[in-house]
Each structure stands twice: as structure tokens, then as C-alpha cells.
Write the C-alpha cells for this entry.
Amino acid sequence: MPTTAEPLVRFQRVQKTYDGEHLVVRQLDLDIHRGEFLSLLGPSGSGKTTTLMMLAGFESPTSGDILLDGRQITGTPPHKRHFGMVFQNYALFPHLTVGQNVAYPLTVRKVSKDDQTTRVKRALDMVQLKGMTDRLPGQLSGGQQQRVALARALVFEPQLVLMDEPLGALDKQLREHMQLELKEIHRQLGVTFVYVTHDQGEALTMSDRVAVFNEGVIQQLDTVDRLYEMPANRFVAGFVGDNTVLKGTLQTAGEHAVMALPNGGLLGGLNVGGSATGAAVEMCIRPERVVLHSADAAPGTNTLAAEVARVIYYGDHLRLLCNVGAGQTEATVKLPMSGLIGLAPPRAGDSVSLEFPVAHARIYAV
């Protein structure tokens, strides 16, 4: 991911309120690097789309500054920011052909007809729509219309492309295919992408970095691997990826802490946030990190006796929902099908032992 000391975009102490009382975005400080694919991820109402709209110029900050290449753009209208935009509803002109839709940004910039033809062809080739110049949007599938919208956003070679839930209207298989295509286009062009989504899988698949929003605040801004493996707080741990969650009380503090369960069991993990002894805490661990042992296996460290309550078939893996007692929610275990070759799969009612490796267990204050 290319970066320089000076970010392409900088939000400084940006706040946004619509009613003068409730802040939709609170004290936002965010640097966007040149050439990166940055996703703004969060639930509805978390401030991610408002942040994108302020960057695009469709909304103005209540306070604070937005800088582009070190220059103030807070008061610059959208059409003068020269950013590519892709929306969920495509926003194509139904009466114009595919070629005319893609050429539209060049027309308003008074690019010559010959240059328009060359650029439109290149943009359509890039999104694999070669030969569809003369079709109308109504003659295209949803995925093809989204490709046209992307070509239109890229055709005038903007330094920044903003996308607001652009794949949300597509079916699952096509959406996943388009995610890979978008990432490949980003790799080829080196243009800066800022992408809004509420889909955690989408953000992890495509992004160099992800900013996780909640209640108008960035909870964590990180690379995708760190975001998944080292969530900064309980909200991020719960919002990004699946977790097995166990409740208890911190018995021993420190970086590597020990949590006491209500039934007297002890589990160790990384004390994220530095909770103090006696604090009510929750341990989170990814389902694929939980190790399944037979009930008669030798007792290990960080293990709990459990009973398989349900087995769910996902095709490439099995999900086990296990009762660990002590008033806890069911523990989730993810078992790859490749690891079950030649073995009888677990069944509901089986007694098992679950190991929660200390290196992957995270303890958070409640």
C-alpha cells in the first residue's frame, strides 16, 4: 500500500450535527493515504456515510476542517472536487447509452470527442463491458449497471473514488465476484478508494485499512489482519467477525490476565484495555481458534468441558454450538471439512472438551 508522509486527505477535528444537539460525527481525525483502499465500516447511524458525504462535498462539517493535498476543501462544492462517485442505486441516466453515461463526466469537462471515445473504450474494457457502448441501462443486469457506474467514476482519472454501499443491491455470488474485481482494478490503477459498507466480510476482503465507526466515533482504524486478530475494544470484537463470548470476573490483572468463570473455572487471555482485578469482563475468541478435543482427552490449559448442542453444515466447514454451562451463551466452534476426512463428525449430544488458546483469547471490560 503506497503511502507518503503527507496524506491525500486529512479530517481535522471534524464534527457534524443536523439538529444542533446530537452529533452524528464526533471529533473526527482521519488521514487517508494516497493509493490506499480504505473502508468505512459500521452499523446504520454510526457516521460512516455522513463522513463520506462530507468528503464528497454533499454535506458540510459543523466544525473542523477537511484538507486535500494540504489544501482546505471544506467549502469547495462537489463538482469542483473532481472525485469519482459510485452509489448503490447506480444513478445512471436511463435515456443515455452506456457509452454516453460513461462519457458524461468528460462532456461536462469539455474533453474533445476523440479523447472521449478513447477514454470511454478504455474504461469499459477495464470493467469488462467491451462492446456494450450502444446499449441502454435498462438492457443490462444489475451487475453490468454497477460496472457502468464504476467506469463512469474512473473515466476522468480522478485521484479519489468514493463508493457508498455500491454492491448492496447485488446477489451474494455476484457481490463477492465484484469485490474481487474492484480490488483488482484498485491494484491496477493505484487510485485512492474510500468505500462505505456495513458488511464486515466485504471490508475485510477488499481493504488495505478499515475504519470501524460506532456512534460517530472511529473505534479502530487498522489493517484488516490486525482488525480481525486484535480488536481494540468489545464493540469491534463483536462487530467484525464471529466470536465465542464467555463472561466472568478478572482474577489476575496485567497484560496476560486470568478470568474467573461463575462456576469457578479459570481462563487466561490478553487483557485488552488493561482491566483491573475484580472487573466484570468478557473473553472473546474466534470460532476457528477454538480447539475441539474428545471428552476423554487429557485435561489441558484453558479448557472447558462442553456438550455439543447443535451441528450446522456450511459446506466448507461445520459450526458446532456447544453448551459450556455456568450461565454462558453457547460456544461456537468452526471445524474445516478438510480436517474431518476419515473421521466421524461430531453430533448433537456429544461430550467434548474445548480449548481456548491463550494467544488468541481477548479479554475486554464489559
